[in-house]
Design goal:
The chain has 520 residues and is of the alpha/beta class. Helices cover 39% and strands 14% of the residues. The chain has 17 helices and 17 strands.
Amino acid sequence: SDVYKRQGINAEYMGKQILMHQVPSRYCILFFLLLLGITSASRFGQLSVTSPKALISQIGDSSQDIDFILANYGEVHFGKVFHGEVVVADPITACVELFNKISKPEETIVLAERGECSFVTKSHNAQIAGASLLITMNEQKQQNLSSLMIVDDGSGLTSSLKIPSIMINYREGALIRDYLKQNPNDSVVLTLKFEWPQEKSSEITTFISVSDTYSYDMLNELKPFLQKLDEVEENYYTLKVHYVLWHCVDCELYDDYQSNYNPNCWSGGRYCAPDPDGDGPQTGRDIVNQILVQLCLRDLSLTVWWDYVVRYRSNCLIGDKNIKDCSNEIIQAMDIPTQTVIDCVEASFEGTSRELSDNKLLREEKQAQDASHIVVWPQLLINKMTYRGNLKGDFMFEAICDSLLEAPSVCTQVKEEKPQVMGNIDVKEPSSMTSVLFCTLVGLTAFLGVFFLYQRRRFQRDMHKEMTLQISSAVSHYVRMHDSSFDLKLDRDCLLYTSDAADDLLCVDLGGRRIIKKKN
């Protein structure tokens, strides 16, 4: 509840959204304790000590890489090699502005200890100090890094983060920290390369939420770069699009998916979605229906699907529009045979009852979601490895190009056009034209201020309604409970937003980049 308040989220409303699964009250606490993320153990590159030799010998064989995990934010330049000198953060946790004097921003790595604040805060402070990379050392000596995922804390700072952030094991971090402490006149140099498993053709897989604006924004960022690859004669990629789904825990535990009482689910509770408008007329079933519509359009033609989702994002995810009516308007405007879509949706149910019959399209989506261990979305997989970093088109495209054994020339062209800055953000001096624009904006702001006061009551009423919908989108369209949520295992994986969030592996996923820790 304290974390909800700190992020400006209504805890009571949040709880209602999360518990749309209608979990029995005696399982509510268990739900929050066991909603753990599962992440695949992927290698995002190579990290090694270049010098000094004394430290290399302590860490192990000089050819041995240091294990690390990559945060789900920051600008990551795949395919590039980075050499940097390590400085220990002062203060060591990097939770406040650093006192370090960094003279070579493009060649400096800040090493911080985990704890006391979020990873995003640490990255923000390291970037302000002038570092090009943040390394956080895990404080738990025996914890498996592959079981963790570092995500956005919801503070809004990630939009300005330019530097990547990684975490390493306690052992290697402590060796580097202690060496620098004992040898203050020596330097420790690390070499880091972010890379992907390479194939002749890149397999691109996306997992999106049908009601989440960020999902469509990711697709919108990705599309123009995929079109660049389409212009090349050879087939350099394949695209698979999947949708995330929920399920009703109560329906599975007590009714074996043979009840239809949950208004947010079809197929006896196998496939669900959170209520999109709270106490409004629409339910999660409307969302699941929309998923089926988009799946049918995807299978009909990817070109048709692309056009549809662009229109759906622009027209149906604003205000309180009826999902079905808005969708039908788009289908008619695109001259798509309405009956073809209807027949496809109906044929996907393996029986006469939507309430109880299983659905082959939704089952395939759920199986794909579970197989890829998707707990954070929107999500991009390249050659079956989860993409981490900024969801901007050029960064995703850079990773795709790095995943190709022989990348086309368009990859080189895009990289040359893109600024390769890992350190500080450049700030330009204002020109005289900027001053004129500033004065104009001041006058316009004064006018808008008067207008705002006049519209204040109406604005507050509409804003309250809009914020309710936004909270629902930001949380309920991200959070998903796994089929295995009630299998308590000590080696279960954990998503982190605070740097001490996995002390006892009790974590709650409240959204793609809004992860909340539950402590005893």
